[in-house]
Design brief:
The chain contains 7 helices and 3 strands; from the N terminus they run ααααββαβαα. The protein is mainly alpha-helical and 189 residues long.
Length: 189
């Protein structure tokens, strides 16, 4: 009989111990699921985030994440990337003017070209300023854009007048003429 009680006690202890472990495993499993759901919720691009106290961080990063199921592939064919040409021209001009040797810069961004004319200091190196202007525009714009640069300051007025024109009639011809003028070597006074 003593053996019987020892056996029953051992079985009860075993069941209690395994029951406690199952309970802990269930709690851990629930906690893991909650953590996983929280992470997925945070990574969802449609999730409403609370605005952080530092607003600048929102403007420093751009992030989206989608699964293949979330994207409507039929509408993707109608989706086109757009570039704010005025904003790009402004950025290029400001970046160029941050360098030594430039007095004034005019930049025009079209759908395929970037046209830059500038007035440089007389004591600055023409090749260096040309290279700075060229590489600055290339670093900002997508690779398929052709960049044309000239230190002929009179072309700044041509770029401005082309920008101010309100007709599309001879637009392409005017652009091509301006590009040819920019490619001509310019003799400084």
């Amino acid at each position: 009989m003593k053996k019987f009680f020892v056996s029953i006690t051992a079985i009860c202890l075993f069941l209690i111990t395994s029951g406690c472990n199952t309970n802990n495993e269930a709690e851990n499993s629930i906690q893991d699921m909650q953590n996983r759901n929280q992470i997925q919720d945070q990574l969802n691009p449609n999730h409403e985030f609370q605005t952080p106290s530092n607003q600048d961080i929102n403007h420093q990063l751009g992030f989206v994440r989608y699964s293949k199921d979330e994207i409507d592939t039929q509408n993707m064919n109608n989706h086109e990337a757009k570039i704010d040409r005025r904003e790009m021209a402004d950025m290029i001009t400001r970046l160029i003017l941050n360098n030594d040797g430039f007095n004034e810069v005019a930049t025009l961004v079209t759908d395929q070209e970037v046209l830059i004319a500038y007035d440089r200091d007389n004591n600055s190196d023409s090749k260096l300023t040309n290279e700075i202007a060229q590489k600055t525009a290339e670093s900002v714009m997508p690779r398929f854009y052709k960049v044309y640069v000239s230190d002929n300051k009179s072309l700044m007025y041509d770029i401005q007048s082309l920008h101010n024109s309100n007709t599309n009639r001879d637009y392409d011809k005017l652009i091509q003429k301006l590009i040819k003028d920019m490619e001509k070597p310019y003799k400084h006074e």
